[in-house]
Structures are given as C-alpha cells and as structure tokens.
Amino acid sequence: GVKSIGKVCLLAVPVCFGILITLCIRTCMDPYGPQGFLTLINPQWSTLSQATAWLEAAAHVVFSLQLGTGVISNYGGYNKFNHNIIRDCWVIIIGHIFWVLLSVFLIFSLFGVAYKEDTINLKNLSPDHPLISITGEGVWLGAITLVESSFNELSYDWLWAGLFFILMVIICITSIFGYVELITNTLISPSATCFRFKPLLSLLTVLSLSLIGLLLTTEGGIHIYYLLHTSLASWPLLLFTIITILTSVYSHGISYIVKDISSMCKTKLSHTISSHFTVIITTI
Predict the structure, then answer these.
(1) How many other C-beta atoms lie within 10 A of the C-beta of residue 112?
(2) Cα dihedral: 42, 61, 104, 36 (round 10)
(3) Cα distance between residue 239 and residue 215, in whole Å
(4) pLDDT in tens, 110-161
(5) Which percentage of the chain shows pLDDT scores above 90?
(6) How far apart are CA 279 and CA 273, in angstroms?
(7) CA 77 to CA 189: how far, in whole Å?
(8) What is the DSSP letter of 156?
(9) Which residues contact 283 (CB under 8 A, 6 or more apart)?
(10) Is 43 helix (H, G, I), strand (E, B) or coil?
C-alpha cells in the first residue's frame, strides 16, 4: 500500500542523494572534472531568444516533476484535509532544484573526464551537429557515453559505474511505484467494492508491465523503446498534462482553489500571495 511505498521512499531518497553526492565528489577529484563543468556551464545567452529552448525547458519541468500525470495528485489524495500542502510543495521544489544542480554537475564533469582538453569543442558545434549527436541521450547517454567513455577514465571504474547503475535502478523503481499505484487506483475507482482486490490488481499490473518490458530485451528492443519514447512519452504526455491542468482549473475555479488551499493549510493567505497565485493559475 501507500504506507509501504512511503517507508521505502524514506530510505530510497537519502540513498539516491548520497550516491549522487558521492559520484560528484569523485568527479571533482579528477582534474578534468571541474574543468569540464566550468567549460560547459558557461551559458550562451543567445539561446534565450529561441522559443524552442523555453518550450523544451517547460517540457522537462513537467516530465521531471510529473505534473499533471496523476502520480502526485494520487499520493496527495491520501493526505488529511488539513494537511499543509504548501509545505510539501516547497519541499518538492527545493529538493528538485538540488537534484537538478547535482545531476548537471555530475554529467558535465563526466563529459570533462571523457573528453579532457577537447571538452571546449563540445560548445563550438554547428546547429547541424548538436551536442546530443555526439553524447547521445537517454539509454545511450547513460550506458555508452558515461560508462564506456567517462567512468572508464577513473580509477576503480567498476565501482563508480556500479554505483551509477544502482542509482538509475533505484530511480526507476521508485517511479514505477507511483505509476503502479496510479493505475491500480484508476481500476478500483469505479466501485468501492473493488478496493479489497487492490493487492491483486497491483500484482497483475506489475506482471503486465514486466511482460511488456521483456520486449525491450529482444534484438529489436531498442527500436521499440525509441518508438514508445517518441509516440507516448514525449508530446502525448505533455498534451495530456496540459489538458488535465486546464480542465481542473476551469472546472473548480481559481477563486475556489485559493480558498481551499487557505482552508487546508489553516493559514490566511495574504493579498499579495493570493493575487500572485491567481495570476500564475490564470497564466497556466
């Protein structure tokens, strides 16, 4: 149940941060690690004038925080009415900021370890050959570029590569917990009598996802992965998220959302906070 998931995450989240910090410290011990980070982190301000950059940034925020996918709202449904959700939002946002900063530092440092003096050339690529064409993304970035090119340059490379894969496995498992809980609650929501079958439905959901995952282990599995990633996990998910947020705000009403948040948190929101919050919701 959700209590068991909460206990697992209480252990998994500190472990993930601990492994990530450990890997960051190890890359700092290599002379090319911090140098690679400082080289690649230097911004190109002209990119801010491109609309596609802002759209991609917004999409990454939606995907990384799982906004509108139903996972966070599903977990939030177990809270009591007077639970302080504003505090939880701040915890999630601050934790996410630290996670992103550490992840960016780790990836850029590993690029510096792999390419050494040639790291500066990664910033001078033409638009026809972007950085992603060299480093790859997703599975290719994690399993090929970082493991074979970056960790291989470190002493005890098997140890750091193993910690990196352990980190990836923990992240994937904790994400799967949320989606399994979401799918199960969706199946039992039509009738309250189905609640007693929730453990069985959770097991069947996990088995079904496992069988689907077996397709990815075949020779054509990588093609199936990219097909699913392109047709389901990118713009369709973003479109569904936007529709969910818009319909929720429109059906409930902005004024009632602000009023309910104030009631749940047992805090009277100031006029400044309420007005800014209303503007943000209206913009969304």
Answers:
(1) 28
(2) -30
(3) 27
(4) 877 776 655 544 555 445 445 555 555 555 565 666 766 777 777 887 888 8
(5) 2
(6) 10
(7) 13
(8) T
(9) none
(10) coil
The residue written with tokens 């602000």 in the block is 258
Half-sphere exposure of 112 (CA within 13 A, CB side): 23
Say what angle helices 198-214 and 157-188 make with each other, to 10 degrees.
130
Asked if residues 65 and 96 have their Cβ atoms less than 8 Å apart, the reply is yes
Dump the DSSP string for 97-127.
HHHHHHHHHHHHHHHHHHHGGGGGGGGS--T
The number of beta carbons lying within 10 Å of the beta carbon of residue 117 is 10
Say which residues have a Cβ less than 8 Å from residue 181's Cβ, sequence separation at least 6.
2, 5, 71, 74, 75, 202
| Contact yes or no for 277/269 (Cβ under 8 A) | yes
CA distance 281 to 272: 14
Q: What would the two tokens of residue 233 be?
A: 């996990």
Q: Which tokens in the block code for residue 217?
A: 């282990």
CA end-to-end span of the chain: 33
Q: How far apart are CA 40 and CA 65, in angstroms?
A: 25
Number of neighbours of residue 20 by Cβ within 10 angstroms:
20
pLDDT of residue 91 exceeding 70, the answer is yes
Tokens 């006029």 correspond to: 271
